[in-house]
Design a protein that fits this description.
By secondary structure, this protein is α/β, with parallel strands linked by helices. It is built from 3 helices and 8 strands, in the order H-E-H-E-E-E-E-H-E-E-E.
Length: 132
């Protein structure tokens, strides 16, 4: 599988404070992509965050409307991010004071990784397992 095939699924998360979430993701190692502001101050209609090793995460502000088809409930998003250097991401997560769900560990299936949560309760697992 080529890297191009690896970027064709983009998880999406909505946040009460999308700008703060984007800044937190940058501190973890994501790169900022497009960010489309909304009508309200601080509102993000659509944005993209790039993982340097491949893949994207879309981040937007929660609209608060009952009929928003694409809004993800607070804390409902979970994603796995492949990294060749989980120890470096772990160090950045610890420096951020991220809430740890699973400590950095080596698994019985050959991966090294950990899981954390952002301020809104969404979970991110980072690990070296890239599939087979």
């Amino acid at each position: 599988m080529s890297n191009r095939e690896d970027v064709n699924i983009w998880p999406s998360v909505t946040a009460d404070d999308a700008l703060a979430l984007r800044a937190w993701l940058v501190a973890l190692g994501f790169r900022e992509g497009i960010c489309v502001p909304g009508e309200r101050a601080g509102q993000v209609v659509h944005s993209e965050m790039y993982w340097p090793e491949g893949g994207r995460l879309m981040v937007a502000s929660r609209s608060g409307k009952d009929d928003d088809t694409f809004e993800v409930p607070r804390g409902a998003m979970s994603c796995y991010v492949v990294t060749k250097d989980p120890d470096a991401v772990w160090a950045r997560a610890k420096d951020l004071g991220a809430r740890v769900i699973r400590d950095l560990e080596d698994t019985d299936y050959g991966s090294r990784g950990f899981s954390i949560a952002d301020a809104e309760g969404n979970t991110y697992s980072f690990g070296s397992y890239a599939g087979s």
